[in-house]
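Pasting two entries for a bug report.
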Amino acid sequence: MNRADEDEYRQFVSVRLESLRITAYLLCREWHTADDLVSITIGKLYRHWRRVRRVEHVDAYVRGMLTNAWLDERRRPWRRERSTDDLPDRAEPNVPEVALADRELLLDLLAQLPPRRRAVVVLRFYCDLSVEETARALGISAGTVKSQAARGLESLRALVSIDASREGA
């Protein structure tokens, strides 16, 4: 890679690094795994930068690379391990308790969605991608994006109502 290409690559990555990291976290819900996914993605991006920079929607393409890296990681045998309910103590930032509870509830609900559906919901509603951009990023049809988004939202609504009925009981 020549110097101009490398400078362009570095500028692209530095501007989008935090957004990629947050998107990865929303997909996997673990900061260390999110960092690993971003590292894998920017490594692949570096190797293929000359080709990728000619793509019409580079941001969508890179989010697709990130999503595919996450889906690949989930298929690995050691990812089938389950975590326990006992978590170590951790310090929380000074965030109002209601906002923190709402955020944790949303993350818990997202974690209950199947991986592909979660990817569609995150890309469509967090990353604010269009149906077509999401389809390109995931390599699926626009109709599949629409149906997965609708089913994802329906599942989230059902999970919220189940959670609300448990609290009321």
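Entry 2 (this is the one that rendered wrong in the viewer):
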Amino acid sequence: MLTTDVGLEIPEGLPFEDWERAGRQLSGVVNSSTWWLGDWLVYGKEHYRDRYERGVLAAGLQYQTLRNYAWVAGRFELHRRRPALSFQHHAEVASLPAEEQDRWLDRAEKLKWSTKQLREGIRLARADDVREAEANDTTRRLMVPGSKLQRWHLAAAQSGTDLRQWVLLTLDQAARAALQEDAAHPIALTSLRIEEEGEHVAS
């Protein structure tokens, strides 16, 4: 086979095994060249700041594409790159902390995941984290008119406390009076969170 600037000339009657081997070689070149370009850009930005943009233009690729290559290459030192995985695998985890990058790449390499499978695995893990956070979130929302909220702010200010503490203390005093509890009952001040969203108070 003969490679040219605009294509690949394949001889007639090429055996399947040769065609298959050529595909693996070409795939390897494409993946490696992405890393090469990324490393080339990182080096240029570090050593030729005044001429960096000129060098990027000379490469003849879209600037945003090159920036993505450089960003991913800059997130992975040579010893952390996985030859068995594609550049795109690394790009999928590049925004994560280094330990998480390694964990996901380990999993993708072990399970022979495609980039799509890796992306889906990360998405599902994040969805599980959100569900777990929601399950652990005991915050409740209380609807109050804006006029009452203003009075609460004023009362809290006059008592020398912030709104969250004032609301918690006031409600707890009312609860003790109604239930005739011991006044020494401890109060968990950190259990109350107040958010002002229109006329909402979260508690």
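Dev reply: Rendering is fixed now. As a check, the viewer should reflect this: Helices lie at 16-47, 52-59, 63-75, 87-93, 98-111, 115-136, 146-158, 163-179.
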